[in-house]
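Complex 554.
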Amino acid sequence: MKELGTAAKSLFANVRHIATWDHARTLVLLAVVVHYVGRWSRPVRAEGLAPVLRRVRLAILRRVFAWMMLIPSNRRRVEREMASAVDDIAKSLMPNTPVPVVRALPAQGRDDVWVMAQVDALQRLGGHGEVDGREVYLDGRVSGTVYHGGPHLNRLLAETLERFLLTNPLHPEVFPGLRKMEAEVVSMVLRMYHAPEHAAGTTTSGGTESIMMACLAMREWGRAERGITHPEIVVPASAHVAFDKAGHYFGMVVRRVPVDPTTRKVNIGLMHRAINRHTVLLVGSAPNFPDGMIDDIVSIGALARRYKIGCHVDCCLGSFLVPFLSEAGFVSEPFDFRVDGVTSISCDTHKYGFAPKGSSIVMYRKESLRRYQYFVSSDWVGGVYASPTLAGSRPGALIAGAWAAMMNIGHDGYVQSCREIVGAAQTIERRVRNEIPELQVLGKPLVSVVAFASAGSVNIYDVGDQMSRRGWHLNAIGGDMPAFHIACTRLTVPVVDAFMRDLKESVAHSHTRPKKSGTMATVYGLHSTTPVAPMLLNEMAARYIDTMYEVSAP
Ligand SMILES: *Cc1c(COP(=O)(O)O)cnc(C)c1O
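Predicted structure with pyridoxal-5'-phosphate bound:
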């Protein structure tokens, strides 16, 4: 005891000796330097120097642009250009129509016949003159977007929704049947993803909410169990933008890691370097949205285990396809809870599960992780309030709809739809590789998305424009490789030949023409390559949303 005291005293003396003013100043300086070097080196370590320098350059250009906008004549010119672009947006969003414009409640209620006549006309709005004018997307020329489970299922869903129209799972004691259905929907999806005992999940309103909940849960986990106050998540460059949305809403830094240029899977070495003491979650997609690749989930899970942090698999798009790939006779890759280290998975029932829109599942390996997404308030004047997800009241009809879809289609039905949809995607992939040398297929797609880039001689956005002109609604993708993709659905299956014919024609019409940017390119051509564009892009995007809420064209 006495020795300890002497040791402490001498230590204290030493500390006093060190802590002179000079030393203190140096120490403070050192701390500041270490802080900033740490802060700036982290993104460099994760992404490499070039992308970080590009961002710095962009930030400088933004500042310069902001200064230039202080000059009235500049501002007027940009404003004019923007107004004309917004005009174009408005025209494309608001087709001419005799359907009357409504701005306020009708003074007297309209009768059912009037309402249904309007509903009918509104449903046809913007239609391309199909036989019955209904549901113009049924011709299958749309990438993703409409996950159609067939006319029979839709009737069943409509009837189920009708019965549960006004139900709300916020009040399980009022709707015991609905509570049972919700628990069963989650249980069925957990089984599909080979969740271990004590795994748990919740329903959500869609993939974005599922992803946001998984990020929130890991933020809370990090704070509670690790004392992490500045949480970061590490995601592939190809991961869905919902992770950025989660970062934005929940105050988390999102570090994006480049993908391998050939395999299009996230670069595991760089992901490793992006991990630091603030990291709470690693992410992989199965598959990702841009080019449909499944990341190396085994390696990401192993990293997560090594650093004892979370690993989320975004299977929103993979939903009810990836779990059935093997059984449908296709090549598959590990993606679910059987992979060590995977702690959460998101799966969209409203995609290839064919549930009504507004339905998704988030799952956790352990119940204790699910707890971290709950919100509970015990001292509200309205009583103890506990809710599992973002919403308060929730649409019970959509949960009942998901339940009905899953029960009606069943395991065999989903295997069959996987066979058809992935089969269509693989036919497209094979035929493009064999028949269109001007295009290259990105990576080796295993699921429903096939992405095409130019093999050199064509302007890919021009090809995309040509496809738009032929009635196709495809997705342009930016990033390191300009391309566009098709996400096959049940509606694509019968139009694969039409797709190939139109694609060949589009390529033929593209490469003889001079390289100019088309409309797909004008959206993506403004990408980070043009100096002034990015700040205009943000403003344009905001005006696009403004325009969505205009009742009629100006
Ligand atoms: C669709 C999708 C999501 C979620 O999108 P929501 O529109 O919110 O349902 C997330 N990740 C991927 C890869 C997706 O394709």
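Confidence is low (pLDDT under 50) at residues 128-133, 515-532.
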